[in-house]
Write a structure and sequence with these properties.
The chain is an alpha/beta fold. It has 16 helices and eight strands. It has a four-stranded parallel beta sheet, with helices on both faces. It has a four-stranded parallel beta sheet with strand order 6-5-7-8, sandwiched between helices. Helix 2 crosses helix 14 and helix 4 crosses helix 5.
């Protein structure tokens, strides 16, 4: 099983732990990822707001490269996935754009969760778990871009997605039901409206605390960074202590498969998950 892999800018910078855990988890589950050669930025999250042409042109180059290679594309970053799917749809619908970028639409564009939720991959995951995450209480947080825009992402259920739930259950974790699976954390407003970001993030963290979750789990690097880095500010503003680990689902796959580098990934977190995982005997 082989895919073209588009890491995108964030996974080579602030979300290296997502890139490393994604690649290593895929490898251990028999999935080969071929990084798209000479890939460029997809334009998330600014190009589509300022230039209608660049919105499609930036992802188009990488999509055409992937199509020449003949493999479906997987983009772990939710923002990259949306921009690639949107560009693919526009090239199929707009003749002028398709003439400029002769993309045929013969490959699929998968989100990170799509890959690990495939029947064959999920089956292997269940078989190869060597350290079940028993007793670990988690809330799955999909965020906005995993399900929206609905006409672009085309999720099975935009209100109650279940892919991450199923993956976490396969790992042996206790998946808690909560109402904020797809609520916005304010990530894209991180620099322009910090007040709103703190308000939206606090709502999510408060619910996670109320449910006594050991961790909030996501696949979106913007959501992870936002919820991980803002807890000190929320603590300062409210006088209440916020210390909720924000983990990538692929990091937990690494824990369940006993990957030797999980502690290296955790060192990149602001809120360390090590104490919560050690308390459960998982690391």
């Amino acid at each position: 099983m082989e895919f073209s892999y588009y890491p995108g800018c964030t996974l080579t910078g602030s979300a290296k732990e997502l890139d490393e855990s994604f690649r290593s988890s895929a490898e251990r589950l028999g999935v080969t990822l071929r990084e798209i050669p000479d890939w460029t930025c997809c334009g998330a999250s600014s190009a589509h707001m300022v230039d209608h042409y660049l919105e499609a042109a930036l992802p188009a180059r990488d999509l055409m490269t992937a199509e020449r290679l003949g493999n479906d594309v997987v983009a772990p970053c939710a923002g990259c996935h949306v921009r690639m799917k949107a560009a693919s749809q526009r090239m199929m619908e707009e003749t002028a754009l398709r003439n400029r970028f002769p993309f045929k639409g013969e490959i699929k564009i998968l989100a990170g969760l799509d890959l690990f939720h495939m029947d064959a991959v999920l089956s292997r995951l269940k078989e190869r778990v060597s350290k079940p995450l028993e007793g670990l209480r988690v809330v799955p947080y999909y965020g906005c871009l995993a399900v929206r825009p609905v006409e672009v992402v085309e999720p099975e259920d935009p209100e109650n997605p279940m892919q991450m739930d199923h993956i976490l259950e396969a790992l042996g974790a206790e998946v808690l039901s909560w109402p904020y699976k797809t609520d916005c954390c304010g990530g894209s407003l991180a620099l322009t409206r910090t007040d709103l970001v703190l308000k939206l993030s606090r709502k999510l963290l408060d619910m996670a605390k109320l449910l006594e979750a050991d961790a909030l789990v996501t696949m979106c690097p913007m959501c992870q960074a936002n919820l991980d880095t803002r807890q000190a500010d929320i603590t300062k503003e409210t006088g209440q202590v916020y210390h909720v680990p924000i983990l990538y689902v692929t990091e937990l796959i690494g824990v369940a498969l006993q990957h030797p580098r999980v502690r290296e990934w955790f060192k990149r977190h602001i809120v360390s998950p090590e104490a919560a995982l050690a308390k459960k005997g998982l690391i």
